[in-house]
Please model this.
Amino acid sequence: MKNKDFFKLEVGPKDGPKSKVEGRVIEDFSGLDWKMEKMRVGQGVAEGIHLLKSELSGNNFSWNKGKVPGDVYTDLYLAGELDDPYFGRNMHKAKWVQEYEWWYNYAFNLDQSFGGKNITLVFEGVDYSCEVWFNQEYLGKHEGMFSSFEFDITDLVDWTSPHVPVNLLTVKLDPPPKNQQNFAGLKHNFAGDYLTGLIPFGIWRPVKIIGTEKVKIDNYRIEYELDGKRVNTSLKVNINAFHSIKNAEVVVKYLDNNEIIKEVKEPIKFNRGHHTTAIMEFALEEPKLWWPVGMGEQFLYDIEISVVEEGRVLDNITDKTGVRTVKYTFNPGFTQEEVEFPWTLNVNDKPMFMRSACWTQPSFFYGRNSIEKYESFLLKAKEANINNLRFFAWHPIETKEFYDICDRLGITVWTNFAFATQEFRSDKVYLDKVKREVRSIVRERRNHPSTVMWMGGEEVYFTEAHVHSRNRELMEMIGHTISDLTSVHYADASPLSSREGIRMGYKPNESLHANGHYYAAGAIFMEDFYPKLHAAVIPELTAASAPNVESLKKFIPENELWPMGLSWGYHMADINVLQNLNYEVHGSTGMDSLEEFVEYTQIAQGTVAQFALEHFRRQKPHVSAVALCHFNTNWPIIKWDIVDYYGVKKRSFDYVKRAYNPILPSLEFAKRRYNNGEEFVGTMYVINDYYKKYNDVDLEYKVLNNDRNEFKSGSIKIDVGENVSTPYTKIEFEVPADWKGFFYIQLALKQNGELIIDNEYRLLVDDQEKAKAVAKQMYLDMHKYRKEFGKGYYRYYPNILDEL
Model:
């Protein structure tokens, strides 16, 4: 309870209590105090559920508890109406949920600090469409999960404050839409080769009440431009006026550890019912800059923006701001006939190689996410030496909490809008919805220093249907639509240089997805696949593995763990692909036990990632970004993640962490298998992403046999420049006649005898061509099974029908 002397109150006949609390007051409705219930479509309104009042033992007394932010499925799981959707094949058992509308209630008394203020009810995000009532009054309908929306409820608030809450907020969630053509861009994709088709929906972002006086700051835009030691700053503050005001001012303060280092004021007038933009231009003298991890400090100023009338604060917001600039330049070594768009990220005028990975929210079900989970996963991403995360349309546009943590950790963000792998509509009704949604997405995320790229679509130039569609026009329209809201670079889609993209007019070497090695496992070895790809950026590159055994036990029924039961396929295990990759890396499929299979897949995934990531890193600055697909996945599956759904690192994590080390000795070699008596030739590189030179360092190597006994070693003295990839010398030797199994090559970079970083490669004593023939037959057998039993996971269990 607040101190009774804190407020000086008058009770007004209409506006309720009058408070002298200045500025913005917020009440967040997040938590478990919501109630929720199922209704048949149309039943709720027909029975007057929207007209209910808040009562102690009212109609909703025995409704389920609801959680906001959250989702319908999690609420039903907590209430005992659903088994854990993640266990076994339970997700399909939950599909009935999406056939109903779901009603949510929240009852409250309004704190007296809101007295005399204009009161706005704000929904930060509802997936996907809803209708809203407050105290039996209809407020409106909203469609689109990423755009926030709000209502003025000043005149609807009940100010009496008995022991029972008197204000009742009612939200009707519509059944989620199923045809993705109708909502692409307004909701993320829910179907694909690692999703079941279950459609998530719910009040997935916070609901708040905001109280302000006379005006409300809606949003702001801040841009920085380096000018020697000073930084020119442009700030636009968008303000909604509830009243006319002749003499007011916008006040902006920059604070460093609570000390004001810059204060700017701008006079402004307001007309009731109008939006006004305050435009402020000023310079910051020698400010502390924000840098991505590995390039400098991630310094964040506190920024306060207030609207003041005659010394009284009417509204105010606080935020963090990182002073940085983002520009893109062309990758060297490409002609204009090969690449027409700039792909090299420059932060504060310094080029940065994106050591990226594809990201998704920690859980497919929003109600299972938390700031703690975000923090845990993002800290692991930083540990893996990732300096950029990319998410695309199979996953939601990320939350403010995600961007806040990335700002703090120095992880840059590549934000794809929610368009994926289909032909999109082109009618005006749909396009107007898209414009509204993408503008809202940008307004709410543009000021984060971690935001370094916007992108329209994911694999939207990927099929023959796309070639004949208007997808390119849509992607270009999105870029035009957001161009007045942000100066951060926009790119149409990924990839641009697919066969279909080239036919649609894009250049051949812009961007490529390097997933063919995975999907064609056995048809081509990694050393023959990745070096043939030639593009400025590689936004996806994938391999896969099984989670650790203890994680598998959490979602695979015990009787299906080994031998592999149907739940393996249900949880997206491409069993033949995993076996083929095991053979490529180990010379064996690893099927003797569950433990062996898991270990083999994780090492195989790490080996592929190491080879591919280092290959593209060695091409810098010709290549400026590569992204592992994926860092994590949003439900427990047997697929691409290097940190599983439960936050447990796979063995492959360590391979990626090493391959992404900012400074790294790296070995280029032509193949992974060598016969006895055959000559091995490799070239040693040093990759350095730091803006730091390493002079007079030792680049060492060792060759070890299968028993890890040293066979050969050497060392050279080198100087390493800043932000370079440089070849130095070759390693050459003949594989001894008595070697068998594996052999190892270790590299190390040392300065004054102290280790900077080391690296290791495991190669095979084996016949390369014979191994390719075996792998190719495995690939052909895999496709034979697909043709005979279909592409679904039933093909792994050909006797399934015999058991009926």
